[in-house]
Amino acid sequence: MQRRSHYGRRSRPLLQLRDVGRAGAVILEFILALPVLVILLLAVVEFSVMLQVNQQLAYASRFGAKLAAEITRNKDIHPNLGDFNLASTTEVDSLQGRIDRYLQTHGLTKSCAVVLEHNACSVPNHEQDRPGTIKDSCHCGNPPALMPVSLPGGSENEAYVRVTVALTLKDNVPDLLNTLGFALGDRTFVHSTTLRIETDNTPPTPVIGISPASSLPPGYEPNSFPSSPDCGDKITIQNPTGVTAATGSLTFNLNGAGSHDAEGSIQSYAWSVTGPDSPVINNSGSSSASVELPIPVAPGPGDTPATATNAYAIKLTVTDQCGRSNDCTINIDISSTQYDPDP
């Protein structure tokens, strides 16, 4: 006959008590860890949404920079870099309006500020902040320092644009940790994109206006001058045969104020004149100047007409703020004919 051991029967209640204690400990550990797990889960969800919003904002700044980089620098064509992001620009044409439509298309709210910066030649408003400074509108400090207006070592056509977009996290990211003391508040995402402006800097167009400072000597022609002759034109001043040749010199007023540049105003004017007797231009660094041109002395008297001619070339060189220059030359020939049939 087999004998039964009573030790096994006695150990069962002890094992049950141990199982119950272990389960209770697991439950207690789970209860203690649950808040941490919930916080981690909410943090992961919130952080994931923030990454997505941040990525979309980066795309929005690139989108805005591409728009600004493709716009012509010609100030007479609207919209241009000079007024692309000003408060006076219509919402449809403004840079911020277009960026806001991009953000709303991707399920985000409008931006709280868009800053347009550029160093395009001669265009005003190198920094355009709409609707207000990022520091005041978005509570996130100022954007990086402005780009330099001049670019050392760069091409005269080379210019850059930078677009900075700021977007508040509120209403774009779920504030899941607010009740746990980690509220989003006024926190803001800011992204900047810099691109080279695709349109080249157009060289300026010089225009020379010329007029005699006083009436020509009696008998000399022509009696009138074109107010703005074309570059390369020649003006011939002469006395007909039989009219006594004049002596001395003729003074002409020069005016380059009609010169223009597609991007803005002319930065500098430079006048020069070539010809006999080294004529000097007065006030040569201004848009207006004057020059005194000597009248040649014709040999005579004699039985046949004798003519002497002085040929002068007046050149105006204009330069824009990006260093691009262009020049225009007007030629003036002054002739004197001496004729005396008497021996």
SSE layout:
Blueprint: H1 7-70, H2 95-105, E1 113-118, E2 127-130, H3 134-138, E3 160-168, E4 188-196, E5 209-212, E6 234-237, E7 249-255, E8 268-274, E9 281-282, E10 288-294, E11 306-319, E12 325-338
Parallel strand pairs: 6-12
Antiparallel strand pairs: 1-2, 1-3, 3-4, 5-7, 7-10, 8-11, 9-10, 11-12
Which key phrases capture this entry?
four-stranded antiparallel β-sheet, 25% strand, alpha+beta, Immunoglobulin-like, 343 residues, 3 helices, rod-shaped, 2 domains
Please characterize this protein's 3D structure.
With 343 residues, this protein is α+β, with helices and mostly antiparallel strands. The chain folds into two domains: 23-196, no CATH class; 209-338, Immunoglobulin-like. 23% of the residues lie in helices and 25% in strands. The protein has three helices and twelve strands. The protein has helices spanning 7-70, 95-105, 134-138; strands at residues 113-118, 127-130, 160-168, 188-196, 209-212, 234-237, 249-255, 268-274, 281-282, 288-294, 306-319, 325-338. It has a four-stranded antiparallel beta sheet. Strand 11 (306-319) and strand 12 form a beta hairpin. It is rod-shaped and about 155 Å long. The model has no long low-confidence stretch (mean pLDDT 82).
